[in-house]
Amino acid sequence: MTKKTFARLGALAALATLSACMVPMAGNVSGNNVNLSGQGGQSATPSAGPSTNTNNNKVVKEVQVTPGSFVVTKGVAKKVSANVIYTDGTRDSNVTLASSDDTILSVNNTNGTISGLKEGITTIEAISTVDNSKKATATVTVKSGEVTEGVATIDPAEVEIMVGDTTTLDASIKNSDGSVSTSITWTSSNTSVAAVTGTGGSATVIGKTPGTATITAQGADSTVKAKSTVKVVAKQ
């Protein structure tokens, strides 16, 4: 053979060797691509985590309207004091007002006021906007002309009780039109000596420890009030 023939055979052998080496390399790249594709699919699936409540909803305990009954003047708007109390102790005024007789009393839920339309007695209802099963009512008397609270009286003005005993106090507030207001709030100046609970014109006082406390009966007008001095003594 000539030198040219040997050179041609050598080139063909080198080409065959190179082709044989390229086959497994191509298979390896293809396998890597499948593997990466699988990894990509796994990373695209989000892992499950704890859900978060962004509303922070509260549970309504009760609704309160204070006072429980009051007098309004025909044609004059009056602000209603209504509160929603939650189980965590917080409160707000997110309520809707409703009148049981809109010919006597109208409500304005934009500013939380009521207005007397004609003389009469009706009720208003304060309903929680969070939980409309929670509501409170108050009695409203509509009078013609200006009605103001007048003189407050309390009976007895002084009383002595023993620790653990109770006594009853009665109070009344006469309005300028001659009517009697039942909108009375009771407080004790020292609840560790004498505690008081009551609605309207009557309250119960219980002696806790020896000492003296002042029990106050106060009308919706903060300037109208009556006071009773309660002395608590130790049991013999």
Describe this structure in words.
- The chain has 236 residues and is of the alpha+beta class.
- It is 17% helix and 47% strand.
- It is built from one helix and 19 strands.
- The strands form five sheets. Strands 11, 13, 14, 16 and 17 form a five-stranded antiparallel sheet that branches. It has a four-stranded mixed sheet with strand order 2-10-9-6, with no helix packed on it. A four-stranded mixed sheet has the order 12-19-18-15, with no helix packed on it.
- β4 (81-86) and β5 form a beta hairpin.
- The termini are far apart.
- Residues 2-7 and 18-55 have low confidence and may be disordered.
Number of helices: 1
> What is the arithmetic mean of pLDDT?
78
Structural class: alpha+beta
Order of helices and strands: HEEEEEEEEEEEEEEEEEEE
* N→C terminal distance: 143 Å
Largest sheet: 5 strands, antiparallel
The shape is flat
Residue share in helix? 10-25%
Strand percentage = over 45%
What is the count of β-strands? 19
Rg from Cα? 42 Å
Low-confidence stretches: 2-7, 18-55
